[in-house]
Amino acid sequence: MKYWKVLGTLIFVVCAVVLAFALPFSGLSAEGHRVCSSILIALGLWIFRPGGVPYLAGSAVLIAGSVLFGVPLRVVTSGFTSSGVWVLIPALYLGYALAKTGLGKRIAYFVLKSFRPNYFTIVLSWFIIGLVLSALTPSITVRLSVVMPIAMNLVEGCGLKERSRGCALICLAAWGGAVLPGTGWLTGSLWGPFMMGFLPPAMKQLATFDAWFRIMSVPWFIAGILFVGLVYVLLRPETRLAVARESFHDTYRALGRISTGEVVTALILTGALVLFATERYHHIPTAACAMMAVLALVLFDIITAEDVGKGVNWDVIIFFGAVVSLSGIFAHSGISLWIRPFIEPGILSLARTPLTFLIVVTLGFWLIRFVDVPWGFSTIALTSSLFIPLFEDYGLHPVLVSVAAIAGGNSFFLAYTQPFIMVSDAITGQRAWSSRHVALAGGLYAVSIVAAMLISSFYWKAIHVLP
Length: 467
Known about the structure:
Radius of gyration: 22 Å
Strand content: under 5%
Number of helices: 25
Structural class: mainly alpha
Distance between the termini: 48 Å
Mean pLDDT: 88
Low-confidence stretches: none
């Protein structure tokens, strides 16, 4: 695996060198070729991460290479001043507070102890837990860090074999509940801040909390239910789950009385969610509301000076700023203008039948994800200029179009194409599921997404966002 990652990176580097010096594409300027070469090297480092290098390495290549080949620094770093990054940073601190105080674990065990334990109620519990945690933190990594260790403790307590059907069922249901439903509102996952960053400046005001919830909540709620439901149907073992209900009560009691820190954190996070949801009444931007919540956590000593460095993964922040800047980099270097004739006619021709457009674009993103591994961000950036004609000429709201991009970004058919699968593997010590289980779950996710789009089309038409 180590040598495969090095080889993969080298292939990208060699292609980048050839691109920079041979200038093979007619109609693309020398600056465009060389900026493309910088992006290729960055992609190689982001995809393969040889030697475990941080995302910072690829971000540094992208920023330095773009500036070196003529893109102004203000364009290259424009992602760092976008509203998305200033939602992302406080959002990660909110998630950190949820984990630090133990509130997330308390919520999880409270839900689990509320049902008589069997495979069905545990799957249902994971979905409820995912919804609650999504309301309190947009960080999927934080949610996974809460639920996946509990899932493995449950597997061990039931005497299930590692990577067995029952083990995979419990862990994949926990994963699905933590990852999928929260996409239904702007601050329920980091997809909200990311897509805000990719939208053209003139369209950012359309991605409000209200608009996001109105368009996204139904399809992602349906997709989440279908995914965990199909996992339950296809992976449920024939033997019953051997665990006593009292064991969940004992574990919950072992957590002790709820602390002041947990109460304060719950109140602050709930208050932030209320502010996010009522932006159209008080007109305070989401980023400002999120920063106010962080300030409250600091004032109540939930986040201290020593937490500033470890409470947020700054490698992810730099990666976010770099990839969101790609839209401006593509535009300034002429790459967007050069590639537009190749992709625009096909995409815009599909927009005449919006539901077909969403499904076909989703399928396209699934194919692209095999090479554009970091959530397909470079593809989203490259095509972001199309949000404008899709809205102005075909009436497709940018949040509706984002459904296809996010459906592609969350997809997985192999473990390496889904970063959150890899995060969960790391948390569970690769004991949760086998590669066969991942492939099956990836197929079930694909079925769930397409079915959710078809069902949601009736709702989208009713609220007049689908022509």
